[in-house]
Design goal:
Elements (H helix, E strand, L loop, with lengths): L1 H12 L3 E7 L13 E13 L3 E4 L9 H14 L4 E13 L7 E13 L1
Antiparallel strand pairs: 1-2, 2-3, 2-5, 4-5
Length: 117
């Protein structure tokens, strides 16, 4: 039992992530009247105690929530010199880690949007 708890805690120390990915690959299709379009996808996730107390979250980004992830996506759009964000969609999940008896949870948020000028 001690080995399982130690393994879980070690894995938790390595967790908490934020990532952002972009693409312009639309196979020649256009998105409305916009000339330049880029799809931006942002993900954040971390480990929470009882799904509400943050233990390990993305350090720079903050908590795993919709506000934080939308902020990441819009910041990336601004960094790439886009002036508008369209089709913004978000998904927020909370799932228990196996073998932790609903004590440790992984909360994740995904936001995607199209950025255009």
């Amino acid at each position: 039992m001690k080995a399982i708890i130690s393994l879980c805690l070690t894995l938790c120390l390595l967790m908490g992530c934020a990532s952002i990915e972009t693409t312009r690959a639309f196979n020649g299709l256009r998105n409305g009247d916009s000339q330049i379009v880029e799809h931006i996808n942002g993900n954040t996730w971390g480990v929470y105690l009882f799904s509400c107390i943050p233990l390990f979250v993305p350090y720079k980004e903050g908590l795993v929530d919709t506000d934080t992830t939308v902020n990441m996506v819009t910041r990336e759009a601004r960094r790439l010199n886009y002036t508008k964000v369209t089709d913004l969609q978000s998904s927020l999940r909370s799932d228990p880690l196996e073998l932790t008896f609903y004590i440790l949870w992984i909360n994740s948020c995904q936001v995607s949007a199209n950025a255009c000028k």
